[in-house]
Amino acid sequence: MPNDSRATELPVINLHAATYECTFGRGCDGICCREGRPLIYAEEIAKLHANLSRFLPLLRPRARAVVEKRGFVSGRRRLGQPLLRIADGWCVFFNSGCVLHRVGAEEGDKFRYKPAVCSLFPVQQNEHDQWYVRQHGFENEKWDLFCLDPNNSAVSAAESLRDELALAMRFDDEARAAQANAGDVGSAE
Ligand code: SF4
């Protein structure tokens, strides 16, 4: 589980103004999982494969059939990475909520199995590696999701996204450590 206390240390370029409130189960059916097609990294694919037998019984019957026949990774790519497959218009791992989220939460870490882009949403990095909260009218946001319209919530993103910001902080730390290690290896050569 991310360490929430460090979330506010992450530089997020629009955090002072961003508002956000997830209303899944309170009016929203989880539409980001219908339209999302998240990209997924090789290590995340490996983790899902290793635990797939636990997820399969929890999937929608159609989604389970698709995954068993064709796998959960589609042939499409974004930013060079493969995307999760959809079935009947929804992510194969969606079943009245994210199955990966549910299984992870039962084990004490809701982010354990979810792809990073899903876990971080709506926090992400721009092309300059700056963190920001996705909002209509900012960084050329094109996704017309209700929750990305800052006019639809007065809740500060700094509060509502503490877990996501803490996770972003962790990813930042890991990236810095990897860079430092690469530098050590390079200087030792
Ligand atoms: S992996 Fe989970 S959170 Fe991500 S799109 Fe699929 S169902 Fe939604």
Task: Write a structural description.
- With 189 residues, the chain is of the alpha+beta class.
- The chain is built from seven helices and six strands, in the order H-H-H-E-E-E-E-H-H-E-E-H-H.
- It folds into two domains: 80 residues, no CATH class; 76 residues, no CATH class.
- A two-stranded antiparallel ribbon has the order 1-2. It has a two-stranded antiparallel ribbon with strand order 3-4. A two-stranded antiparallel ribbon has the order 5-6.
- The longest helix has 27 residues.
- The structure holds iron/sulfur cluster.
Which key features would you list for this structure?
189 residues, 2 domains, two-stranded antiparallel sheet
Quick recap:
The protein is α+β, with helices and mostly antiparallel strands and about 190 residues long.
Question: Cα distance, first to last residue?
Answer: 37 Å
The unique ligands bound to this protein are:
iron/sulfur cluster
User: What global shape is seen?
Assistant: globular
Strand content: 5-15%
The poorly predicted ranges are none
Instruction: Characterize the largest beta sheet: strand count, sense, and whether it forms a barrel.
Output: 2 strands, antiparallel
Number of strands: 6
Average pLDDT figure: 92
Strand arrangement, major sheet? 1-2
Estimated radius of gyration: 17 Å
SS element count, helices: 7
Helix coverage percent of residues? Answer: 25-40%
Order of helix and strand elements from N to C terminus: HHHEEEEHHEEHH
Total count of domains? 2
Q: Would you tell me the structural class of the helices and strands?
A: alpha+beta
